[in-house]
Design goal:
The protein is of the alpha+beta class. The chain has a domain of 93 residues. It is 30% helix and 33% strand. It has a four-stranded antiparallel beta sheet. Strand 2 and strand 3 form a beta hairpin. The radius of gyration is 19 Å and the shape is elongated.
């Protein structure tokens, strides 16, 4: 009986912590959907970045880590075009050698721009990995 009660309690607590998909929690969040865009960026880097060229068990890089994200100022012109959010992000990762050991390190920088509910991505110049401030 205790196990059943504990399992039910865990389910209730997890449900309380999980926001509804596309629900009211997203309505006021200008960065809603950004996490999935960062995951897509990570996938593109793994497929295309030179540090990820050697594949081991289908994976070319490991240890992906978003080092920083920083909101960017939206200009009046961008606001007029419907831009609602913009930020720069930096990510680091490590390539792999054919034997599976850690290979060459890599990093990438991007500006994510949200227009309406759609995010776009473009490469950005390098930034400080701690603050995302321009170098």
């Amino acid at each position: 009986m205790r196990r059943l009660l504990a399992a039910a309690l865990v389910s209730v607590l997890l449900a309380a912590c999980t926001p509804p998909a596309g629900g009211a929690a997203d309505a006021g969040d200008p960065y809603a959907g950004l996490d999935s865009q960062i995951l897509a960026w990570r996938g593109a880097l793994e497929a295309e970045h030179p540090a990820c060229a050697t594949k081991v068990e289908g994976k070319g890089c490991q240890d992906f880590q978003v080092m920083c994200k920083a909101a960017q100022e939206i200009t009046p012109d961008e606001t007029g075009r419907g831009v609602t959010a913009q930020l720069v992000a930096a990510i680091t990762f490590a390539g792999r050698n054919a034997d599976g050991s850690t290979g060459k390190s890599g990093s990438a920088f991007a500006v994510f721009t949200k227009t309406g509910t759609t995010w776009s991505l473009e490469a950005a110049p390098p930034v400080n990995l701690s603050t995302c401030a321009p170098l």
